[in-house]
Amino acid sequence: MNLSLLSARNFPRKASQTSIFLQEWDIPFEQLEIGEMIGRGRFGKVFHGRWHGEVAIRLIDIERDNEDQLKAFKREVMGYRNTRHENVVLFMGACMSPPHLAIITSLCKGRTLYSVVRDAKVVLDVNKTRQIAQEMVKGMGYLHAKGILHKDMKSKNVFYDNGKVVITDFGLFTISGVLQAGSRREDKLRIPNGWLCHLAPEIIEQLSPETEEDKLPFSKQSDVFAFGTIWYELHAREWPYKSQPAEVIIWQIGSGMKPNLAQTGMGKEISDILLLCWAYKQDERPSFSKLVDLLEKLPKRNRRLSHPGHFWKSAEL
To answer: pLDDT per residue over 1-31, tens digit each?
Structure first.
């Protein structure tokens, strides 16, 4: 019997071992070839690059000398290293020596789901929206089984290519934060366009410049609420609460109000799933495992969903 394996499996990992476990995933920054910028997120910029082949390089912006953010970054990397699922972006390694912090993943093919649902040329019938949702739900169920919360689930963090769905950028919210870098003393909330409609009521209620990012009550249930917003988006082909001021959105979600679903043209079975995900009380929202069953039970139909013309004008920047 291999006693070293036995001890590793049966005794808790010491805190000092964290750096040892991360060493095998540490990529020297100078080994990366950074190409064109292909995206920009809350956490920083994404570049097309090369490291033993094509990769996506996410350069992480954190406040200089912020040890808490650096620790949060390394905690997230510890979680990423064990993720392997067809609907989750492949983690390949990270640069963990300040000032060069980066996460290196496989390069996602296709387009963001945000772009797909706003493309008037793309037909989204009920069968296709269900298939996309099922892929997302399987990926999110896997992350939750691994103890990983996404915290920033939205269509811009989901890639779609010929029926394949890949979830990206899970866990990065804690690193990037809800406040503009350097603006905490100015008491400014960082509220990107379309962000609020993905936040569950229990998070909306805690939003303030004084609240630390890692103190916001993100949970498996809040990820489900955010999935509900994507489910809405797949059918309405736009975010809910479109063009409403942030203060109005905060008040509506915080008080449990829902947008008018009649204008989206979605049937009862579809809206029932949405309302479950958007339940005001956390314990009334289904798990992603339960959502697998609910989506499977949806009746198959051969019809094209309505696509209001005024939604077509939206385009991803």
So the answer is: 443 333 333 434 444 444 666 676 778 888 8
Give the catalytic positions in this structure: 152
Is 205 found in the same domain as 191? yes
175-215 residue pLDDT tens: 555 434 434 444 556 677 778 899 999 998 887 766 666 67
- Enumerate residue ranges in the chain where pLDDT < 70: 1-22, 24, 41-43, 62-66, 171-190, 209-214, 301-317
Is 14 contained in some domain?
no
Containing structural domain, residue 242:
111-311
Residues 117 and 304: beta-carbon distance below 8 Å: no
For the chain, what is the radius of gyration of the CA atoms? 20
88 and 116, same domain (yes or no):
no
Cβ atoms of residues 312 and 120 within 8 Å: yes
Q: Is the peptide bond before 98 cis (omega within 30 degrees of 0)?
A: no
Task: Tell me which residue of 81, 100, 226 sits closest to 156, measured CA to CA.
Answer: 226
Structural domains counted in the chain:
2
pLDDT at residue 280, rounded to an integer: 95
How many Cβ atoms are within 10 Å of 280's Cβ, its own excluded?
A: 16
- Are residues 287 and 215 part of one domain? yes
pLDDT score for 38? 82
For residue 285, give Cα distances in angstroms to 258, 279, 294.
15, 6, 12
Q: At which residue do the structure tokens 């070839």 appear?
A: 33
CB contact set of 139 (below 8 Å; sequence gap of 6+): 85, 86, 87, 88, 165, 166, 167
Distance CA 203, CA 219 (A): 10
Q: What percent of the chain has pLDDT over 90?
A: 32
Look at the chain and count its residues.
Answer: 317
* Tokens (6 digits) for 223: 């990820």
Under DSSP, the state recorded for 26 is B
**Where among 79, 106, 133 does a domain terminate?**
106
- In angstroms, the Cα distances linking 32 to 62, 74, 98, 297 are 20, 19, 15, 46
